[in-house]
Amino acid sequence: MKGQEWYQADDVAEEYDDKRFSRGGRLIDRREKRALLEAVGPVEGREILEIACGTGRFTTMLARRGADVVGLDISAAMLRQGREKARRAGVADHLEFLRGDAGRLPFPDDHFDTVVAMRFFHLADDPEGFLREMRRVASDRIVFDTFNRFSARSIYNWALPMGSRLYSKSEVAVLLAKADLTLVDVADDFLVPYGLYRAIPNALAAPIRAADEAVGALPTADHFASVSYWTARVR
């Protein structure tokens, strides 16, 4: 089943967090949350939209830190999981979950301070149009991540074709320019593909991650990173 269809299946939503972020996947979860917070900056009192919010792991985190957050997703099953997660975390009053299409955001222009989309850009049918929509509803900045073409992720895509797209940095730079966005920062990480971490126990994943970070700190290693986290400002 291809990426978007797989993602919307009810049985996937019920087990999504356990499948993706248990075992060695906890390392991925922690890194992604840290990357998002570094990109967004202080969140208290800010109006934030998360597109493709899934089960709400980022929306709940942002609400806990004082942001007013809207999570939008096309999967009703994922949104049910997100609402329950927000309720258990005691932040339901600061979170609203809506079902909607990322390509046609149901919000007026400049409605949010920040718009974020994690783990979605590789599935976007129209990446330029998606960036334009993000820009349209953001008054300050947007944050998103990409899987990179010149990395071990290309092997993963070949072995498990899910319909996801890989990008070079030059391609993303062109897309940002077309959407009239100014690049603020890009952070690169994970020489080892995500799939390996999810498949092994945390005790084994931790030393692999330590080696990954050590090699990733070398001057030319960013060219081979599996993931890039992008921050852009509305001009």
Automatic annotation (TrEMBL):
The keyword tRNA-binding does not apply. It is an enzyme of class 2 (transferase). Transmembrane segments: none annotated. Keywords: Methyltransferase, Transferase. One of its GO terms (biological process) is methylation. It comes from the Archaea. Residues 49-138 form the Methyltransferase type domain. Gene3D superfamilies: Vaccinia Virus protein VP39. CDD domains: AdoMet_MTases. GO terms for molecular function: methyltransferase activity. Its EC number is 2.1.1.-. This is Class I SAM-dependent methyltransferase. It comes from Saliphagus infecundisoli. The lineage of its organism: Archaea, Methanobacteriati, Methanobacteriota, Stenosarchaea group, Halobacteria.
